[in-house]
User: What shape does this take?
Amino acid sequence: MNNKLKYEFMVEIDLPQAMTEEFISLIPEQRSVVSELLSDKVLTSYSVSLESRKLWTTIIGESENDIAEVLMDFPIIEYCEYKIFRLTFHNNAGFIIPQFSLN
Assistant: This one.
């Protein structure tokens, strides 16, 4: 059993200023990889702003090297620059189930 501490890291990714056809063609595969990583709870969030050419994701891992390895699975990563930040804490609302009403 692996008892090493895991941390949550925020990754800020700069998307390319010029989105070439080659880059755009990688987006479906990127979305597939992201969906799988979210399902496996490796990624805990994933957000994109095309206006600011930024992508933010939170990733669970033991070290920055672990996080960089996850990023290497992103089909688009060779077109991007990124910064990794280990988080002290990260709050989010998560999935909220609406209250059931008998009325």
